[in-house]
Amino acid sequence: MARSSAARPGRTLVVFFVGVAILFGLVALAGNWKPALGLDLEGGARITLTAEGDPDEESLEEAREIIDQRVNGTGVTEADVTVQGGRFIVVEVPGDVENRRQLEETVKRQAQMRFRLVACSDVDGRCATGATDPGLGVDPNTLTPPASEAPQNPQGNKGNKGNKGNNRPAVGFADETPAPAEEPSDAPSEAPAEGGSEAPADAPSGSPQVPAYDGPTSGQTEELLAWQDAPDQASIEAFNAFTCPEDGAPAMVNDDPDSPLVTCEYDPETGQSIKYLLSPAAIEGTDLDSASHGIPQGQAEWIVSLEIGGKGEDAFDTISQRLTGSEKQFAIVLDGQVISAPTMESRISNGQAQISGNFTEASAESLATSLKFGALPIAFQPDVTVEDIGPSLAGDQLTAGLWAGAFGLGLVMLYCLLYYRGLGLVVVASLAVAAAITYAMVLLLSETAGFTLTLPGIAGFIIAVGVTADSFIIFFERIRDEMRDGKSMRVAVESGWRRAKVTRLAANVVSLLSAAVLYIFATGVVKGFGFALGLSTLIDLAVLFWFTKPMVSWLAQFRFFNGGGRLSGLSEETLGMEAVPAGGKA
Amino acid sequence: MGKFSRYGNELYTGRRSIDFVGRRGLWYAVTLAVVAVAVAIIFLKGLNFGVEFTGGTQFRVPLASAEVTQDNADELRDAIADAEIEGVDNPNVTTEGTKAIVVEVGELDAERSDAVAAIIEDTVPASGDLSLSEIGASWGEEVAKRALLGVGVFLILVMLFIWAYFREWKMSVAALVALAHDIVITIGIYALSGFPVTPSAVTGLLAILGFSLYDTVVVFDKVRENTHELRKSGQTYAEAANLAVNQTLVRSINTGIVALIPIGAILYVSAVQLGASSLQDLALAQFVGMAVGIYSSVLLAPRVLVHLKGREASVQLADKRARSRAKASADRYASVPAFTEDLPVHDEPGAAGADLGDDEPGAPVSRPMAPPRAAEASGRGRVVPAPKGATRSSGASGREQPTRETRSKRGKK
């Protein structure tokens, strides 16, 4: 890097400016030249949730935290979540209309999550009396243990032979799992798939014998599994009487964990709803330890990984053992709506499962988020009030602050010009370039990531002025020191750069560490500050390496600078060396 | 200008040097005193936590929709802030939809909340009764816990990084000491100012964590460079470290000026001209923290480092060497007797030159002299060591000579 830029400073500069031009081109495409401002500067929307009944303080606080995590999941919007009056949770979201609607949805999602077993749906038609349309929009998800931990599963289905690291789970269209010899019949008791067995005592031959778990919940789980195979008549009638709402609106159902549930899954892409008859809750969402989304190594599609702990782990073990290899599904129900109904691919004994299927990144992420922050300890009343609020920081304060900051910057530039003379021009140009890039990045992030500029964010950028200027000061002082050692300007630039570079990188690692840790651990406002600090540190490095350094190398070719001109900032007088007898310049 | 740069040059060459690492006891005493004062202020005056931390009271002021304007909200904010009611110095005032303005202040008793209500009634034409409600803290324990966890993780990571980068855990410790000093003093001054502690102030403080360590790393980088080859420079560790701090002094001053000017301007405008706001909290925390951070990286961190390093056996040995060399080179003619009238002249043939007339009265007192040099070192010019074997001049003058090769190898290098 240093070598090539020393040889060809011009080329680096040109490439750099092309990069900046592209950046601004993107901003122009987005067509928004004003950054999105945060709650304290611009106001926004206030969403008030009212709790049902009279919740205790702790569960209200817990609910507040879950909503906070949901809303501030990415940390760039900086919404504010508070508990008020013992039964309200107030969410304040900075004003940006499309964001706001999304966030409202997120907040309103009450998210009480349960895992239930699917007795039948209108796709498999096992409870159906009328003709159904199989293959109408089957949930294509399958549930597998993570590849690295896949147990040897000799009679697992075709796509999953336990070859580690590369077992793409067969995307289990429910009718495409290992083909049963006969058509699925209506009778629930006889839908044997070739690998799975239904009788609890009849463990699949050849599979590793694991002692059956016999815990407190296993009895209950057995009951549920039995019910899954033979639902009671009342539920079947209820199922057949139920119709899903047309437009994908949430079905109005009473999500009681102890009784069967009839509800729907809406697929926004196809606009179809699937109706399910579900067992009483097998696992409560509070047992879910974590959920994340990603692409496992060696695979090409998005998956959602779950980790179930507590009582749920054992129940899940039993269920997964029984459902493996059958087409029977298992539903994840959030607020009474089915969000996913996967089939089991193999037994999962440690509570770590993966849901795979045709996810996009967005759908995987949203499923993981709903799962992760799913379980609110309290229910809220369905009517949510939304109103606009003004900024909490007076407008004149921001403008005054910005003017003061700009005035300060002007002083800084003046000081640099006075102290570094010719080189001061480089400082001024570098600061200007850094400011331009920062502004462009803020605009772009406002568009793409919903970044909103709040006061602490601005503070992060102001701190960055000092750090950015410091990088030039370190570099120039190095050059001067090298020249005091008797090197010529051109040599001093290169050798000074070599030392200054190391110092800069080390010091910036400290800044980046602090930014990253603030971003990861903190919430809300501080998160935004960490983000701003990290962004400006990276920009500082980019400007130093690809602008300031090549610029100085390029200027070093001119007599004005390398000849030690009076105003170059590198004359002997400026270096304070005129008293020293000149040792003859090269 | 020229004068200042000459000063910089002299600092660089070490001809002018400010003692940044010596006088340990005095400086430690000063530092401890300042930190103690800061801690005392924090405990005696206490920090004044804002609504975000303590929860508090919310007044909802219903207004005609024409009156719900940002100007009215700002006016109300200033009116309440200027009223000097105890515990109410930084109200949160926002407009809400088109129906009301909402005022949030800290915990109040009945008397004070009546006072606030009176101010509100006087300032804006409320269209109905004010409604009061309790609000919870948006920055509860959970946020504090997470932030503390983050700070802990950050400190451990940075310590490990400094240790790995400088290969010197003592630098980590010194940097940490300087950081603790900065944080305590910043919090102390913040408590002294009486500004309410808002999330902005906390953010400013967290920023100082990174900045203080950052600045210390820059100074230590130069220290490492100078102390890297002590044997060669013949300095003690303390001297080398001190020279490093002197050499980075110009940079520290410049960076200080450049970083503090913009924040100082914001602090001045927000605190002096605008009255209470979260802007001034932030600016104060950052201004004080940065100033103290730069001060401590020059005056405190190197001192602690030299103190810690001074206990190492290898450093002590090197220092001893450097000191004895310094003593030896301080007066190279110390063993030469001073001239007196009756000084016996040695190179006169026949003079009693074998022994310096030590027993003669009036003769200069001479020091014991080093034994005479070995024979080979007493010639003129460069001292050639004794040859290890017979040498032949090759006549090659150092040029590479052709060698005889088999044909297959010729022309290949």
Task: List its salient traits.
heterodimer, A: 586 residues, alpha+beta, six-stranded antiparallel sheet, five-stranded mixed sheet, 15 strands, elongated, B: 413 residues, four-stranded antiparallel sheet, two-stranded parallel sheet
Please, how many helices of chain B? 14
Largest sheet of chain A: 6 strands, antiparallel
Mean pLDDT of chain A: 70
How large is the share of residues in beta strands of chain B? 5-15%
- How far is the N terminus from the C terminus of chain A? 27 Å
Helix content percent band of chain B:
55-70%
**Count of individual beta strands of chain A:** 15
Strand order of the largest sheet of chain B: 3-4-2-5
Oligomer: heterodimer
Helix content of chain A: 40-55%
Structural class of chain B: alpha+beta
Q: Would you tell me the overall average pLDDT of chain B?
A: 78
- Low-confidence parts of chain B: 350-365
Radius of gyration of chain A: 32 Å
Most extensive chain interface and residues per partner:
A-B, 86 and 90 residues
Sketch the major β-sheet of chain B. Answer: 4 strands, antiparallel
Give the terminus-to-terminus CA distance of chain B. 59 Å
**Taking Cα atoms only, what radius of gyration of chain B do you get, to the nearest Å?**
36 Å
Would you tell me the structural class of the helices and strands of chain A? alpha+beta
Strand elements of chain B, count: 6
> What percent of residues of chain A are in strands?
5-15%
Account of the 3D structure:
The complex is a heterodimer of chains A (586) and B (413). Chain A is of the alpha+beta class and 586 residues long. Helices cover 45% and strands 14% of the residues of chain A. In chain A, the strands form three sheets. In chain A, strands 4, 6, 7, 8, 11 and 12 form a six-stranded antiparallel β-sheet that branches. A five-stranded mixed β-sheet of chain A has the order 9-10-14-5-13. In chain A, strands 2-3-1-15 form a four-stranded antiparallel β-sheet. The longest helix of chain A is centred in the last third of the chain and has 33 residues, at 489-521. Chain B has 413 residues and is α+β, with helices and mostly antiparallel strands. Chain B has 14 helices and six strands. Chain B has helices at residues 2-13, 24-45, 51-54, 70-82, 110-123, 141-166, 169-193, 199-227, 230-233, 237-247, 249-273, 278-299, 301-309, 313-330; strands at 48-49, 56-62, 92-96, 100-105, 131-135, 196-197. In chain B, a hairpin with a 3-residue loop joins β3 and β4 (100-105). Chain B is elongated and about 115 Å long. Chains A and B meet through α4, β2, β15, α10 and α12 of A and α1, α4, β3, β5 and α6 of B.
